[in-house]
C-alpha cells in the first residue's frame, strides 16, 4: 500500500473521502493526528496499535463501538459528533483525554467519564444527557456545552471552579442561571430563551 513507506507520518487527513478500511494504517506507529470525519469507517480495530495517536476525528462516521480505543492511552482529543455512539465505558481508562465532543450522539450515561480528571472541554449538545452528577469530580473542566440536552439541574457542576464557558439548554430556569452567575462570576454563560 501507499502508506507502507510512511512509517514516520504524524498527521493524516482522510476526512470526506470514501475510506472504509483502516487496515493500511496499522504500521503507522508515529501517527499522532488522524482525520476520518465524514468517511464510511465503522471498524476501528486497525487503530489499536497506534500508541502515538493523540487526536482522532470520527465525526459523521458509522462508528458505534469505542471498545477498540481502550488501549490508546495517549489520546487527548476525541471528536465523535453525529455518530451512533451510546456507550462511553471504553473511554474510562483514557486518563490523558482533555477534549471530548459527543454532540449529536445517542449518549445518555456520563458515569464512564467520572475518572477523566484531565478533561477540559466537553461538548454534550444535542444528546440525551439529563444527569450531570458524574461530572462533579472533573475539576479541570473549563468548557461545557449542554445546549439541546434535557438537563435542568446544574448543582453537580456548581463546584467546578475552572469552568469558564457554559452553554445551557433552553429549559434551564432564570433563577438557576442567576445562581450560577453569582457562584461563579467569571463564568461566561451562553443561554438563549
Write structural notes for this entry.
- The termini are far apart.
- Strand 8 (165-167), helix 1 (174-183) and strand 9 form a beta-alpha-beta unit.
- The protein is mainly beta and 193 residues long.
- The protein has 2 domains: 1-85, Alpha-Beta Horseshoe (Leucine-rich repeat, LRR (right-handed beta-alpha superhelix)); 103-193, Ribonuclease Inhibitor (Leucine-rich repeat, LRR (right-handed beta-alpha superhelix)).
- It contains 1 helix and 9 strands.
- A 9-stranded parallel β-sheet has the order 1-2-3-4-5-6-7-8-9, with no helix packed on it.
Walk me through the topology.
Layout: E1 11-13, E2 33-35, E3 55-57, E4 77-79, E5 99-101, E6 121-123, E7 143-145, E8 165-167, H1 174-183, E9 188-190
Parallel strand pairs: 1-2, 2-3, 3-4, 4-5, 5-6, 6-7, 7-8, 8-9
> Order of helices and strands, N to C?
EEEEEEEEHE
What is the rounded distance between the termini?
A: 53 Å
The CATH superfamily of the largest domain bears the name Ribonuclease Inhibitor
Question: Which residues sit in consecutive blocks of at least 5 with pLDDT less than 50?
Answer: none
> Count of helical segments?
1
User: What would the average pLDDT be, to the nearest integer?
Assistant: 93
Specify the helix fraction band.
Answer: under 10%
Largest sheet: 9 strands, parallel
What's the alpha carbon Rg, rounded to whole Å?
18 Å
User: Helix- and strand-based class?
Assistant: mainly beta
Please give the domain count.
2
CATH class assignment of the largest domain: Alpha Beta
CATH topology of the largest domain: Leucine-rich repeat, LRR (right-handed beta-alpha superhelix)
